[in-house]
């Protein structure tokens, strides 16, 4: 079977929830826009607290980043803990770090509570140093997390080789809080839990406008309208429609993955044998993980949907040969791409543009845990009030300047880097 454009997670999750489009009028306590991890976590936690809820999705559950990502259940954020506190201050930064450090536990608790079959593994993640500078960065991250009591450990020498399955990595930061899953199955499981608690889910119902209606809101779709006291906008990087100011608060970037056929035999068994998901310290990083059937999944920043399949195959061959030459020639089967909401400071943004209206964006490629946390926090905030329910304060909406130019420059930089990798100029 040759390489084709197809999201592996969709193929591995045949039992995805089905739902009708909204027709006519509906009244609920809270209307959630977007059936990704954020929206569904919000809906689930609102339902648990007795609210009536509907979720409006423009396409189908998991259409956005939630159904397409690498499936790393990360602890913390991209930027190192000290930098988070430097940017946000000790109190706000410290609270955010504590919340995000505990975020994988929330994801795994939801999986257990609702019996979500998503091939979850709880053995941690490995951040892999590709050179001496990367190793120094990981050493520093390790110390910063250990100072905060996190169960992280820098693996070196034989322990590192054994855990990663490659001789090309000198050190790897093992974060035992984290793990991996099939993100489409997790998202679908959240949707089923929402339906199970009496939530209404509507597919193919893009929101086309949002209007104030007394103290509440009227959320209008192509085929119907929802009256709600409160609204959660959870459309994030996939926000559709000119009506939403949210899309001006991030700049979009892309991430692609390439998955092999299931790999068998001894050489394959030695790659990430502990089941951790991994990524390297390159500025244009490569992610590496196995799935439950032994496939090798490689990924990197950039729009794979705009690249020819031969280029993606050549890139995947190059990364695999660099890290895992013991595999010989690997057959690549699926490739897919998703969109990420980036912010210039690499931090997410929470908004409350009007009473009873909450929105979020800018997970910067870390949404499995962040979306689960923010969804729960939004629910707690709407049900109980009090800013302490939120992982960080809301802020005014602020347009990201020259967003188109930023996206274009990033994409050009990623493409050049990958071409350099294929030509062995960089690796
Ligand atoms: C390829 C890739 C790899 C990634 N890897 C990881 C990873 O390994 N770990 C990690 O933690 N994070 C990762 N991320 C980030 C993570 O996937 C996202 O941050 C997260 O899924 C965002 O979830 P969400 O629910 O906020 O938004 P989304 O999942 O994007 O959901 C938004 C939904 O809103 C819907 N929508 C948009 N506009 C409207 C409208 N007008 N009306 C109704 N519905 C609308 C969309 O159709 C979409 O379904 C990755 C992202 C990508 C793209």
Automatic annotation (TrEMBL):
What residues does the FAD dependent oxidoreductase domain cover? Answer: 29-380
Top-rank taxon, per record: Bacteria
What keywords are annotated for this sequence in UniProt?
Oxidoreductase
Under which EC number(s) is this enzyme classified? Answer: 1.-.-.-
InterPro entries to which the protein is assigned, alphabetical: FAD-dep_OxRdtase, FAD/NAD-bd_sf
- What GO MF terms are annotated? oxidoreductase activity
**One Pfam family from the record:** DAO
Output this protein's name: FAD-binding oxidoreductase
Q: Which organism is it from?
A: Pseudomonas benzenivorans
């Amino acid at each position: 079977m040759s390489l084709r454009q197809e999201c592996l997670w969709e193929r591995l999750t045949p039992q995805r929830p089905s739902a009708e489009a909204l027709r006519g009028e509906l009244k609920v306590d809270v209307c959630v826009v977007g059936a990704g991890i954020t929206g569904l976590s919000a809906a689930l936690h609102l339902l648990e607290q007795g609210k009536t809820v509907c979720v409006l999705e423009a396409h189908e559950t998991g259409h956005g980043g939630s159904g397409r990502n690498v499936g790393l259940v990360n602890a913390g954020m991209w930027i190192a803990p000290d930098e988070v506190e430097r940017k946000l201050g000790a109190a706000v930064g410290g609270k955010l770090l504590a919340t995000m450090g505990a975020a994988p536990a929330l994801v795994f608790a939801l999986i257990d509570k609702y019996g979500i079959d998503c091939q979850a593994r709880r053995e941690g993640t490995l951040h892999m140093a590709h050179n001496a500078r990367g190793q120094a960065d990981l050493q520093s991250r390790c110390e910063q997390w250990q100072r905060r009591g996190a169960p992280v450990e820098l693996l070196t020498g034989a322990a590192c080789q054994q855990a990663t399955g490659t001789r090309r990595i000198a050190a790897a930061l093992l974060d035992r809080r984290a793990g991996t899953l099939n993100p489409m199955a997790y998202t679908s499981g959240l949707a089923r839990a929402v339906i199970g608690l009496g939530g209404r889910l509507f597919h193919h119902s893009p929101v086309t406008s949002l209007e104030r209606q007394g103290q509440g809101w009227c959320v209008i779709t192509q085929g119907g309208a929802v009256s709600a006291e409160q609204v959660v906008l959870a459309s994030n990087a996939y926000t559709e429609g000119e009506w939403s100011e949210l899309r001006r608060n991030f700049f979009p970037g892309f991430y692609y993955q390439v998955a092999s056929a299931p790999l068998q035999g001894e050489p394959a068994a030695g790659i990430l044998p502990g089941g951790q998901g991994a990524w390297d310290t390159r500025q244009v990083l490569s992610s590496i993980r196995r799935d439950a059937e032994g496939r090798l999944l490689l990924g990197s920043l950039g729009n794979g949907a705009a690249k020819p399949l031969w280029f993606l195959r050549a890139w995947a061959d190059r990364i695999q040969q660099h890290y895992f030459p013991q595999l010989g020639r690997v057959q690549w089967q699926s490739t897919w791409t998703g969109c990420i909401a980036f912010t210039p400071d690499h931090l997410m943004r929470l908004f409350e543009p009007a009473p009873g209206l909450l929105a979020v964006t800018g997970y910067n490629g870390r949404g499995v845990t962040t979306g689960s946390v923010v969804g729960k926090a939004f629910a707690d905030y709407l049900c109980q009030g009090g800013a302490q329910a939120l992982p960080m304060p809301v802020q005014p909406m602020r347009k990201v300047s020259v967003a188109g130019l930023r996206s274009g420059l990033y994409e050009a930089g990623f493409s050049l880097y990958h071409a350099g990798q294929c030509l062995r100029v960089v690796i």
